[in-house]
Amino acid sequence: MVFAAVRFLHIIAGIVWAGGAILMNLVVGPAIGATGDTGRQFAGHLMTKTRFTGMMMGSGVATVLAGTYLYGVDSNWFSSGWMMSGQGIGFGIGAAAGIVALVFGFMIGNTNGALAALGAQIQGKPTDEQMAEMARLRKRQVFVTSANTIFIIISIAMMASARFLG
Q1: Contact assessment for residue 62 and residue 13, using Cβ atoms and an 8 Å cutoff
Q2: Residue 37: what are its φ and ψ, rounded to 5°?
Q3: pLDDT beyond 90 at 37
Q4: Phi first, then psi: what are they for 151, rounded to 5°?
Q5: What distance in Å separates the CA atoms of residue 87 and residue 60, rounded to the nearest whole number?
Q6: In whole angstroms, what is the distance from residue 94 CA to residue 99 CA?
Q7: pLDDT confidence band for 98 (50 / 70 / 90)
Q8: How do the domains of the chain map onto residue ranges?
Q9: Would you say residue 117 has pLDDT above 90?
């Protein structure tokens, strides 16, 4: 009964986390970037006035913790030969990709926070230093959101197909 409840939590939290991240990284984020001040206002509201950030972090952490429990049970707490089976390897790769995606998710949050703080400092025309810092943060943002999306997709693919790997 506990295993089934944790599996349900893992799947639902994973859907919320992965779906939200992919939608944000591939659709909403580029739209924010393309709409100038209006997009920045929307992003500021989304990140500070709604539950989006907390929901994403909570669902990501819940997914990883529940998945760790499930893998632990299936592998006799990381000590059985099942871990070297096709299914065990598939779930292991998916788990590792999910953990890496979670780390990149935290990095996205930190980068967005730094961009918001910088934006709040700018009064009128940005200085050359502010422009350089904004360019550096935007470059980092592109990297971490791309990596987050790639690792989430790898995790989804491995979790969905692991049972068919032997």
Answers
A1: yes
A2: -60, -40
A3: no
A4: -70, -30
A5: 23
A6: 9
A7: very high
A8: 2-164
A9: no
Position 47 pLDDT exceeds 90: no
**Alpha carbon of 61 to those of 8, 13, 67, 102: distances in Å?**
15, 9, 10, 7
Amino acid at 143: F
Closest CA to 156 of 3, 4, 17, 2: 17
pLDDT of residue 41: 84
Nearest C-alpha neighbor of 18 from the set 50, 47, 60: 60
Which amino acid, residue 133? E
Indicate the residue type of 134.
M
The dihedral formed by the CA atoms of 136, 141, 142 and 147, expressed in degrees to the nearest 10: 130
82 DSSP 8-state letter: G
* Distance separating alpha carbons of residues 59 and 47, to the nearest angstrom: 16
Distance between CA atoms of residues 103 and 35, nearest Å? 28
Structure tokens that stand for 98 in this block? 């999910």
pLDDT at residue 107 in the model: 96
Q: Could you identify the residue written with the tokens 């989430």?
A: 152
Extract the tokens encoding 152: 């989430």
Q: Which two tokens stand for residue 73?
A: 């049970």
